[in-house]
Design a protein that fits this description.
about 140 residues, mainly alpha
């Protein structure tokens, strides 16, 4: 099953996820468009270029965190993907709904997250359930 078929979930944890959370090489079409649209780069592009992926799902599913993610039921958002989305959300001071929309339509965010241009996003409610209390809005 491709990511497009899981449009509401996003990169997921499990066997059918994209490179265990969407990390790895940035798709060529995403990289090419990002360079044309932002020839000077953006903070997101510069960070991804300098540091590569900030984390992997293995950072969350091994060691002391092993067992926190069940293999049963509907797969959830990749924890590595969610980490970077949350960092971007905090950096840009966006609400959950705005953040989900930004993942779907901002080329620099797709670049930072290693997503293809055809990635349609996920439902904003996926952020609410995992949002730290310092980020929640009344």
């Amino acid at each position: 099953m491709t990511l497009a078929h899981r449009r509401w979930v996003g990169p997921v944890l499990g066997a059918d996820c994209v490179a265990a959370g969407g990390w790895g090489e940035i798709p060529e079409d995403t990289a090419s468009l990002a360079r044309r649209v932002h020839p000077q780069g953006t903070d997101e592009i510069r960070v991804r270029d300098a540091l590569g992926p900030l984390s992997t799902d293995e950072d969350f599913t091994s060691g002391e965190f092993e067992g926190m993610y069940s293999s049963l039921g509907q797969p959830g958002l990749s924890p590595a993907f969610l980490l970077v989305v949350t960092i971007l959300q905090f950096r840009h001071n966006l609400a959950d709904r705005e953040t989900a929309q930004a993942v779907a339509d901002r080329i620099s965010w797709k670049y930072a997250l290693g997503l293809g241009l055809d990635y349609a996003g996920f439902d904003f409610s996926a952020l609410r359930s995992s949002a730290p209390t310092w980020r929640r809005r009344a």
